[in-house]
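Morning, I've got a small favour to ask if you have a moment. I've dropped the whole record in just underneath, so have a look.
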Amino acid sequence: MDTIFLPHLKKIEPHAQFVFSFPIIESSLGRKYYAKVGSLSEREQFVGEAESLRAIYNAAPGLAPQVFAAVGPDNPATTSERPYFLSEYRNITSLTSNHKAGEELGMRLATELHVYKSTMGFGFHVPTFCGATRQDNDWYQTWEECYSAMIGSLLAKLRDKGSFSELCTKGEQVRSKVIPFLLRPLEIQPVLLHGDLWSGNAGIDTLSDQPVIFDPSSYFGHNEADLAIARIFGGFPHSFFEKYHEHLPKTEPVDQYELRADLYELYHYLNHTVLFGSSYAGSALRKMTILLGACP
């Protein structure tokens, strides 16, 4: 694997020597890199992660690890090309109890990442992966269309499993009634999202003491959708949400904010049902019941 990364490393540090101890590479000048090589079947995952990180780095430099080299979306895979990934190495610790870092993360999301707009519409230019679930992605002119397609894709995966008929029936009702009711009136722009922002994908860089996010599943959507999984699993200090909305107020109509939160959380409950089975189906059904009950 050394031969895959050495040409890229020499471009970054022409006069350095390198010690390879995968996934860490250390240069004689003191810099560290994170490197990995996947199987041919993992090409889309590598592309999706790299393109997501690049977009985040462009929107908010330093908030995510910088990607130096990776298999690209326009490079067709051949039988001999394994996907690869090279980024800066960040030593990361938990964000959970650090209120100052929580505030900093909330501010940076609100003032940098979630104001970085797409000129193509809602969606993303390559498939991405939320956990192991492939998000097909495409470009849509409205957020309503985009989010309905995202929910529809998960329902299709559940139908293929053959044991979630009630969930799928109610899910289609959410698509036909709730999504138009809650999302069609919104006056929003497509902004860059991390896509899987739970506490396991955020932390503090021990060198800079600054927040960092990683393992994204990015797309351009409604900023509030990026807060959903953070609420479900916790791990973010309360200061994160306070500082976030101090810089980026809740979208009008504000009185539907909690319902929109339920709708955005539903995506992750459905995805966890796809990934882990029926233990999450009850939570998804409860969210659907709340949403359908609030819909005229």
